[in-house]
Design goal:
Layout lengths: L3 H4 L2 E7 L3 H11 L5 E4 L8 H4 L3 E2 L10 H24 L6 E2 L2 E5 L2 H16 L5 E2 L2 H7 L9 E5 L3 E2 L2 H14 L3 E3 L4 E7 L2 E7 L2 E10 L5 H6 L8 E11 L8 E4 L2 E5 L4 E5 L13 H14 L7 E12 L6 E4 L6 E5 L5 H16 L15 H6 L4
Helix pairs in contact: 2-7, 2-10, 4-7, 4-10
Length: 383
């Protein structure tokens, strides 16, 4: 008797990686009538996609905007559309909402960086409001006085990562995507410039096209194809506190650290950026520093309960841009990896962009800026 695995060995597209990027690509392709299978070494959506805070900062394109700004702006427009569509298809709510944010600076150095960020947002037409301490206290009464500059960003949004991943999995099921959790891929079968099959712990699986979207774990599979990208795991630690509802209502952000209120009394505090390889454990020092950061901004958090804490490994790149497009040397292999802290934010536009590439449709976005060989295209050197 054939196993379920052997009966499902032929797909139009195989996606390696079941995080928010891989699942979003599968969902988008399946909506075009394409038969997709997704493989992940663990449970679907349980790595960095699940571990993040779900912040969706505003973005808007403008004449001459860099490619990364155009990518963020396109995804910012897609998020409410995708969330509504997913809710209609599955009946599940991913927690997407416009919550607003308060951006703070706590010293002169961070004030200069914040001023530059605010200027870039204002130049793009994003609404901002500089806040006095009195006005900041009116917006967020629980906010402490440990800051020297503040701005309100009303267009800031958020989504609840675990809920969104649950919704994406359900939507992929409904669109006929085959999901293979706990099935690591480790190699390829090739013929010339085409990949014929991916090798997994459950056997070989054939497809017409392949996508590597394994986040920080993408390098091994890409290297086996001669594609050596500077992808690096960057650990981020997060703490979840439980307190009374509506203690704060907006995201509060100080450079790379933040408080994200969930509306039910839970508040996320994050996050670190640590180069420790694939070590995903929490450390007492980092957790203590995050809690102290939260308490300094919102003193009432000193009485909040610590509900849990965790860590995720974000896929970083040397220039801060993701890799999107064909894998050099192969006509039917693609990569979507290296989104660092923006994987959730950029998932909808990444899915639509990869779908357009794979179906040979013209894109209005400058995807060339994200190609795998961009570093070598400038020098003319081979990868």
């Amino acid at each position: 008797m054939q196993s379920d695995y052997s009966r499902k060995q032929l797909s139009d597209v195989i996606v390696i990686g079941g995080g928010v990027i891989g699942l979003s690509i599968a969902y988008e392709l399946a909506g075009q009538g394409i038969h997709v299978s997704v493989f992940d070494q663990g449970a679907m959506g349980q790595e960095s996609s699940w571990a993040g805070a779900g912040m969706l900062p505003p973005a808007r394109s403008y004449r001459g905007a860099p490619a990364d700004v155009q990518l963020r702006a396109a995804s910012h427009e897609l998020w409410p559309i995708w969330s509504a569509r997913l809710r209609e298809e599955t009946g599940l709510d991913n927690g997407f909402r416009k919550c607003g944010a308060v951006e703070l600076a706590c010293d002169d150095t961070s004030a200069r960086r914040l001023s530059a960020l605010i200027t870039s947002w204002q130049d793009a037409g994003i609404a901002t409001e500089q806040l006095t301490k009195q006005r900041a206290a009116e917006l967020e009464p629980a906010l402490g006085a440990d800051f020297c500059d503040a701005y309100s960003i009303p267009e800031f949004c958020q989504v609840r990562n675990p809920r969104h991943l649950k919704v994406l999995v359900a939507a992929c099921h409904q669109r006929g995507v085959n999901l293979f959790p706990g099935v690591p891929a480790f190699g390829w079968e090739r013929s010339g410039d085409r990949i014929l099959a991916v090798q997994t712990v459950k056997g070989r699986f054939e497809a017409g096209q392949f996508v590597v979207a394994s986040g920080a774990w993408s390098s091994t599979l890409l290297s086996a194809l001669g594609c050596h990208l500077p992808l690096e795991p960057i650990r981020g630690q997060i703490v979840l506190l439980s307190t009374k509802p509506d203690l704060i209502n907006r995201v509060i952000e100080v450079e790379k650290c933040y408080l994200v209120p969930r509306g039910d009394g839970r508040i996320l505090i994050g996050s670190t950026e640590e180069r420790v390889g694939f070590l995903k454990q929490n450390t007492s020092q980092a957790i203590a520093e995050l809690i102290d950061f939260g308490r300094r901004l919102v003193p009432a958090l000193g009485q909040a309960a610590v509900e849990r804490f965790w860590a995720g490994l974000r896929p970083g790149t040397a220039d801060g841009l993701p890799y999107l497009g064909t894998i050099p040397g192969y006509e039917n292999a693609f990569v979507a990896a290296g989104h660092f802290r923006e994987g959730l934010h950029l998932a909808p536009v990444t899915a639509e962009l990869l779908s357009q590439m794979m179906r040979h449709e013209k894109s209005t976005l400058p995807w060339e800026a994200f190609r795998c060989d961009r570093e070598h295209a400038e020098t003319g050197k081979p990868m």
